[in-house]
Write a structure and sequence with these properties.
By secondary structure, this protein is α+β, with helices and mostly antiparallel strands. Among the domains are: 30 residues, no CATH class; 85 residues, 2-Layer Sandwich (Arylsulfatase, C-terminal domain). It is 26% helix and 13% strand. It contains seven helices and nine strands, in the order βββαααβαβααββββα. The strands form three sheets. Strands 6-7-8-9 form a four-stranded antiparallel sheet, with helices on one face. A three-stranded antiparallel sheet has the order 1-2-3, with no helix packed on it. It is globular and about 65 Å long. The termini are far apart. The relative contact order is 0.09.
């Protein structure tokens, strides 16, 4: 049994259209039309109605916490006393070591800071329904006898900044945008919960799903997570590529290539602009070490790896030494 249920257009929580197995269905403003609940209900029904002896794959994608980040009915008053987000990199006063597109950002005045704080609370409120949906998925897997032999993966497409480096969106090479949650549950393989700081990327998901299904994959850049899930000490990658192409809707962030290891990240833009951060000593990426003699060898090594991995360069990006 196959199902396709996908929303049309941008993220919406009410008054949206979906394609349901080829048919257009419109939803309104009633509490029952809340998008996360609707998508979750379809997913739960799909799992419940698929015969237990039949293999199952469900990709469940909801709009939360994208703008306008509307809370589910009953969640509107949550987190009223949540403290504002004020990490060390918040609203940096001195950004002279940052690339031009960051230097061009004005310092966040009080009104803008309040707007970001309100948006953050809206986003977190909208995630309460997502949290319940995850619980419902695990419950229905238990109910249908599938939990023991089903791999559950929870992740996100990107992170977002709440005022760090004067930025309040995504698309940037900073940790708040690049690092996303990844939770894997597979009761047949993982006996107990643990945390792992290995460098995993979204390109690893498809090979992992193919491995779980016993399917072969064509040549891909990603790696199946199964060896890492079986043995956290297994040999694994020690760096990965990040690349971005400037385009309409990219918030004015120029094209860049970056190389990220456990400790360092080197970012190279055009116009001879670069950033280098030591994440061990500066996890909030406040101090750009590019050009520092003490980090010359580190920079050269990372640059060699960046150039080898970022081939071809994003269209329009020219890296000059």
């Amino acid at each position: 049994m196959d199902r396709w249920f996908g929303t049309q257009g941008s993220a919406a929580y009410y008054r949206y259209r979906v394609t349901s197995d080829g048919a257009i269905v419109e939803y309104g403003n009633d509490p029952a039309d809340y998008a996360t609940s609707v998508v979750g209900g379809i997913a739960i029904s799909f799992i419940r109605e698929t015969p237990s002896e039949q293999p199952l794959f469900a990709y469940i994608n909801v709009p939360a916490p994208h703008d306008p980040a509307i809370a589910a009915p009953g969640d509107e008053g949550a987190f009223k006393k949540l403290e504002p987000w004020r990490p060390p990199s918040y609203n940096e006063r001195d950004v002279k070591d940052k690339p031009r597109y960051i230097r061009d950002q004005p310092w966040l005045e009080a009104d803008r800071r309040r707007e970001i704080d309100v948006a953050r609370i809206r986003q977190i409120r909208s995630l309460l329904a997502v949290d319940r949906l995850v619980g419902d998925v695990v419950d229905v897997l238990e109910e249908t006898g599938r939990r023991q032999n089903t791999i559950v993966v929870f992740t996100s497409d990107n992170g977002v900044l709440w005022g760090e480096h004067r930025w309040d969106s995504k698309d940037v090479p900073y940790e708040e945008s690049i690092a996303v949650p990844l939770v894997v549950r597979y009761d047949a393989l993982i006996p107990a919960a643990r945390k792992d700081d290995s460098l995993v990327a979204n390109i690893d998901l498809a090979p992992t799903f193919a491995d779980a299904a016993g399917a072969t994959t064509p040549e891909v850049e990603g790696l199946s997570l199964f060896p890492l899930l079986l043995d956290p000490t297994t040999s694994w990658r020690d760096g990965f590529l990040i690349e971005h192409m400037a385009s309409h809707g990219a918030n004015g962030v120029p094209s860049f290539c970056a190389y990220h290891t456990r400790r360092y990240v080197l970012v190279r833009y055009g116009q001879r602009e670069s950033e280098l951060y030591d994440l061990r000593t500066d996890p909030w990426q406040r101090y750009n070490l590019d050009g520092s003699p003490a980090y010359g060898q580190v920079r050269d090594s990372l640059n060699d790896r960046l150039l080898a991995a970022c081939e071809p360069l994003p269209p329009g990006l020219i890296l000059l030494d």
